[in-house]
């Protein structure tokens, strides 16, 4: 049995604020530390985690483990298992906590997006597609929508593909089993997959369909809203992606003729365009309603400042927008730091913002580590930051850079997303150019 530890309940809020302040979100923090998302989630919510992982996450967030540890936990308490699965709550249901909790969740309306989303998933068999690069507010929009619909009596599920392990992507059967079990766990119903999965005479897609149609959808008369987040993680598994996405389209079409499927409302969330080859009549990306999240307007940035206790006017937000545009995450990080450090001015904050010592240092280094590992991506980004106009690069590189949020497209060309990124990466490339071989 592994030695484990957990964050003291009085330190949980402080630890979560550190994640917001220092840069990476839960999934990025997990990727950076080569840990499962479930392990990071458990740590941040005061659940037992392997002691070595506790110490590693603490160091990453700038804490000494002994300063935030719950000293009363039995060091031999069982933590999450070797695969990083979330601890069971006693009835077979995984406990999955959203990144935004009630104390820290701030949402800025982007009309008419919210009304469109609510109306779409209020329709029988509704299908909603939300696309935006990383850090643009997809998660906040999802949390806002699901909370509102839950208050109206809907069953709501947010399923993040980052909770799937690599083995779950090894075959279509494994992935659909993970999918069925995960949805059931979120609904807090007993796992009865063995009763519906026919290995001998049926196919994985038929088995998965039967599990939903005959079991999961029948557990309540309330409609079910199933939000599948980070769908782009499935894209690189082309065969699985094609079959799974085709299955979602088939379920959407079933709602036109089968009453039980009218209960299912699908929300597909992804960060990039779909590059999986799909037949027109089998793709969920040419039906339903599409939402492409844009950056905040100056008025929305001003409202965000107000939510953080800053009494600003439109001219006062212009220097910040000149540096980060209307990027939701970057603007919020600026306001969080100004709120926590009232003696610091915006001008002082922006002076070091594009450096490793600035408030975005962790995020910028996180991006640079990604770029350094890919020579072609590094060459493409260097061309982009050296140009003040949109330029053409290979579709593959454009796809990857847009996926992680460093560029925005303009027709068939791309340009750097904001001046902050241009300044930081230009300094990185200048350093490399000046360094001896």
Number of helices: 21
How would you describe the shape? globular
The low-confidence runs, each spanning 5 or more residues with pLDDT under 50, are 74-103
Give average pLDDT, whole number: 87
Q: What is the CATH H-level superfamily of the largest domain?
A: P-loop containing nucleotide triphosphate hydrolases
Task: Estimate the helix proportion, in percent.
Answer: 40-55%
**Strand/helix succession:** EHHHEHHHEHEHHHEHHHEEHHHHHHHEEH
What summary fits the major beta sheet? 5 strands, parallel
Class inferred from helices and paired strands: alpha/beta
At the fold tier of CATH, the topology name of the largest domain is Rossmann fold
Strand order of the largest sheet: 4-5-6-3-7
User: How large is the radius of gyration?
Assistant: 23 Å
């Amino acid at each position: 049995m592994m030695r484990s530890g957990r964050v003291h309940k009085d330190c949980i809020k402080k630890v979560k604020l550190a994640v917001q302040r220092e840069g990476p979100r839960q999934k990025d923090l997990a990727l950076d530390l080569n840990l499962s998302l479930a392990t990071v989630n458990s740590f941040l919510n005061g659940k037992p985690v392997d002691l070595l992982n506790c110490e590693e996450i603490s160091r990453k967030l700038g804490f000494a483990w002994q300063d935030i540890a719950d000293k009363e936990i039995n060091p031999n308490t069982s933590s999450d298992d070797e695969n990083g699965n979330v601890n069971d709550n006693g009835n077979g249901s995984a406990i999955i906590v959203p990144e935004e909790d009630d104390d820290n969740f701030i949402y800025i309306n982007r009309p008419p997006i919210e009304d469109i989303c609510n109306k779409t998933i209020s329709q029988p068999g509704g299908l909603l597609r939300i696309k935006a690069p990383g850090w643009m507010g997809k998660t906040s929009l999802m949390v806002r929508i699901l909370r509102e619909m839950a208050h109206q009596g809907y069953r709501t599920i947010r399923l993040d593909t980052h909770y799937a392990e690599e083995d779950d992507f090894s075959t279509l059967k494994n992935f659909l089993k993970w999918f069925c079990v995960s949805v059931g766990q979120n609904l807090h119903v007993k796992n009865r997959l063995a009763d519906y999965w026919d290995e001998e005479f049926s196919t994985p897609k038929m088995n998965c369909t039967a599990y939903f149609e005959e079991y999961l959808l029948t557990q309540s008369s309330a409609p079910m809203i199933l939000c599948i987040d980070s769908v782009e993680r499935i894209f690189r598994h082309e065969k699985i992606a094609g079959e799974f996405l085709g299955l979602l389209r088939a379920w959407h079409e079933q709602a036109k003729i089968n009453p039980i499927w009218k209960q299912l409302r699908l929300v597909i969330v992804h960060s990039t365009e779909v590059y999986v080859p799909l037949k027109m009549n089998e793709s969920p990306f040419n039906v339903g309603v599409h939402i492409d999240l844009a950056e905040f307007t100056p008025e929305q940035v001003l409202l965000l400042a107000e939510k953080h206790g800053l009494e600003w006017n439109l001219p006062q937000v212009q220097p910040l927008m000149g540096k980060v545009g209307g990027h939701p995450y970057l603007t919020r990080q600026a306001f969080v730091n100004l709120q926590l450090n009232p003696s610091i001015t915006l001008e002082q904050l922006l002076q070091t913002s594009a450096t490793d010592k600035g408030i975005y240092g962790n995020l910028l280094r996180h991006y640079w580590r990604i770029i350094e590992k890919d020579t072609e991506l590094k060459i493409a980004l260097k061309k982009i930051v050296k140009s003040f106009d949109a330029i053409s690069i290979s579709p593959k590189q454009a796809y990857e850079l847009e996926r992680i949020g460093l560029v925005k497209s303009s027709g068939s060309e791309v340009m750097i997303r904001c001046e902050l990124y241009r300044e930081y990466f230009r300094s990185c490339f200048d350093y490399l150019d000046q360094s001896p071989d």
